[in-house]
Design brief:
It is globular and about 65 Å long. The protein has 2 domains: 334 residues, Rossmann fold, CATH 3.40.50.12780; 93 residues, GMP Synthetase, Chain A, domain 3 (2-Layer Sandwich), CATH 3.30.300.30. The chain contains 13 helices and 21 strands. It is of the alpha/beta class and 435 residues long. Helix 7 packs across helix 8 and helix 10 runs parallel beside helix 11. Bound molecules: zinc ion. The site of zinc ion has 7 residues, from loops. Zinc ion binds next to loops.
Length: 435
Amino acid sequence: MAQRIAEYQDLHDAEFVGLSGNDKANYWLDSLEKLCKRVFSLPESFYHRKLRNCGYQPGDLKDIQSFRKLPFTAKEELREAYPLGLQAVPDQDIIRIHSSSGTTGQPIIIPYTKKDVADWALMFARCYALSGVTKNDRVQITPGYGLWTAGIGFQAGVERLGAMAIPMGPGNTEKQLQMMVDLRSTVLCSTSSYALLLAEEVTKRNLKEKIHLKTGIMGSERWGEKMRARIEAELGIETFDIYGLTEIYGPGIGIDCKFHDGLHYWSDFLYFEIIDPLTGEVLPDGELGELVITTLVKEGAPLIRYRTRDLTRIIPGTCSCGSDYPRIDRILGRSDDMIKVKAVNIYPGQIEELLRGVKGASSEYQIKLSKVDARDHMLLRVEAESGTDFERLKELIATNFKKQIGVLIEVEIVPIGALPRSEKKSKRVIDERDL
Ligand code: ZN
C-alpha cells in the first residue's frame, strides 16, 4: 500500500502519515481535547450538557486515561435528540442532513457542514484507492440514494477520486446488467446480497464474457467467506469490505486492503476504542469487544465515545501492506448478541465461524446455558446431515471450541430440522442461569 498511498498522495495528510507512534498518540490526545473544548463551549448543546454532567473542565484531558473517563454516547441518546438536537454549529453552516433508517422509534438525524461532506468524500476516495480503483475506472453504484448515507457517499468518493460514477441506485436488475455490459463498468458497489443476485443473473444469462468488472466494494451487511468466494468466482472480481455507519459520516470510514486481513480505518479523522460491552472497560488491542468511535474533526454533529454496537477487535501489529493506518477485524456481530460464559465473552459470529470450519456440521445451532454446581454450563446443540458420524463430530466441535474460544462445553449433535427455526438470531440462546 505504500505504493498505493504514493499514487494518491493528495488523499492523505503527509504530516499525519509521517508521525511516529508516540507523536500519533499525542495527535489523538490533542485532537480529543480540542474536540471536547469546542463542544463544551457551546451553551446548552448536546455535549455541553453531557460533559458538564460528568464534571469535565476544559484542559482536563491530560492523558488517554482521562479521556476514557468521559461517558459513552448511546444510540438512544441520538434518537432522543431528534430532530436536530445534535447540531453543533449555526444553521448557516449546515449544508445537508442524513438519517438512519429508524426501523424502531425515531430516526437519527445527522447534520453535515461543507467540511464534513468533503472529509467524508476524502475518506471514501481513500477506500477506493486502497482497493485499487483509479481514475480510469467506471464505478456502478447500486446502493440507494436519499436520506441514507449509502448511494451519495459512494458517489462523492468516486468524484473525489476522479473515476466515473454510474449512479444506478438499487433494483431494476435488467437495467443494471445493460449498463454493466454497455458502459463496461469495472467496479461494482453494492450490498453482498445484491452482488450475489447480480452474479446469479450474469451466470443465468451467459453474460460473463461480456462484463468487465474487476472489483467489488461491498458494504452494510455481514457476509461469510463462502458467499464472498461465490460472488468473486461468478463475477470474476476481487471484493473489498467497506465499513461505516450513518452516525459517523456513513460508509467509507474503513476498508480492507489487498491482503484482506482486517479493515484499515482513517485514524486521522476517527478515534477507535474497543470496550467490553458489559462492563464498559476499554480492552487491549486484539481482544474482541464493542467498537466505540469518536469523531476527531467532525463539525455538524461530532460524537464522543459513540457505542456502535458492532463487535470487532483492533488487529495488533502492522499490516503486510505496510500501511500505518490501524486495522479492525471484520464485524463479527452485534454487541447485544454477546453472551458471557465462564468469564469468557462469546459472540454468535465466532460460533458460526467455528461450525463453518467443521465438515458435516450445518450452520444451525442452539445454545443452552445453565448452572451446574453453581458453575456456568454451556450446551451447544448442532444439526448435522444424516450419514455423518455424530459421535466424532461431537468430539471435534468440543475440541475446537476449547481450542478456538477457550471454553469447555458440552456438545450434542441432532439431525437436520430438529432445532426450531427463527428469524431472530438471539432466539438461538436459551439462558437458564438466572432461573
Ligand atoms: Zn493493509
